[in-house]
Amino acid sequence: CDCEKQNQSFNNTLEVGITMKKPYFGRLLTAMVTPFNADGSVNYAAGADFADWLLANGSDGLVVEGSTGEAATMDMDEKIKFMQTIVARVNGRAKIVAGAGTNCTASTIDLVKKMEACGVDGVLVVGPYYNKPTQEGYYQHFAAVAKATKLPIIVYNVPGRTGGNIAPETVARLAADFSNIVAIKEAAGNVAQTAELYRVLPEDFSIYSGDDGLILPFMSVGACGLISVLANVNGNLLQQLMQAYSEGRVKDAADLNKVMVPLAKAMFIESNPIPIKAAVTKVTGIEAGAPRLPLTPISAAAEAKLDAALKAAGMIK
Q1: Side-chain half-sphere of 316: how many Cα atoms within 13 Å?
Q2: How many C-beta atoms surround the C-beta of residue 160 within 10 A?
Q3: From its phi and psi, is residue 40 left (phi > 0), alpha (psi between -120 and 50) or beta?
Q4: Can you name the residues that pair with 256 across neighbouring β-strands?
């Protein structure tokens, strides 16, 4: 019965110490790039300085070592040291969410536990990529992770990178059964699916858009925040847009959206994070470095388009 479900959820909340709020980690989380030195090694000092810059320029929190942070090409020692560096520099001033998803449930749990030991505030766990699980497989994967940690979890649905879509009913099932599954980063690019998530999920469950360019339509159907690539260089614009919409100033939000969308598109003229790493260096003065192979530095043609977009927005001269 409904009472039994409510009691089960309440007991689980007590067990893991989760207090629901919305948006759970703040309205704007930046999917932070990982700066590299010229020789390809991690630039820990630049990473710490960049975290400071982000918090001073619109970010409510940081997602560290996600796909934008090139976690796929970082080894475990680098991941731990970089996360410890960022946690120490932020020092409780903002929430830090660790990218901690792999396509193996056991290795995901191991990574989540290592990130928990670094002192992060939550984890972003992507749907297993390449394997293409069934919906039951998705459920069992996230259930196993939720049982293994007390950290709050953001489910990350990005079919374009994983090859499979996590259905809204699966997310709703997870939300009902595990109180530390508190949010979703929805990056399927589907407004109707976001509306369905809002319909089937608890009122206090946080739906984050995973696409900068879709934040306005996503907010109109229930999203409460954004996990952003563009915020690496212009979090204030995104904050202003979301604030305007939340205050009912829809025309103002639409006008800000006209400025934001071309910038967001420019950050994906080549595979993420190729353009955004170049943009970070240009806009912030903090050297982000080139991406690691198999990603390559931005091409001359793409860089010209990126520069044009940044200049049009008044972000570089």
Answers
A1: 18
A2: 11
A3: left
A4: none
Single-letter code of the amino acid located at 59: S
Cα atoms found within 13 Å of the Cα of residue 222, Cβ hemisphere only: 22
Tokens, residue 136: 């039951």
Active site residues: 156, 185
pLDDT at 14: 36
> DSSP states of 225-292 as a string?
EEEESTHHHHHHHHHHHHHHHHTT-HHHHHHHHHHHHHHHHHTTSSSTTHHHHHHHHHHHS----PPP
- Radius of gyration for the chain, computed over Cα atoms and rounded to the nearest angstrom: 19
Query: What's the farthest any 2 CA atoms get from each other in the chain?
Result: 63
| Cα 52 to Cα 215: distance, rounded to the nearest angstrom | 25
The reported pTM is 0.92
- Count, residues in the chain: 317
Specify which residues 62 forms β-bridges with: 30, 96
Q: Tens digits of per-residue pLDDT, 197-238?
A: 999 999 999 999 999 999 999 999 999 999 999 999 999 999
Query: Which H or E run contains 169?
Result: helix 168-177
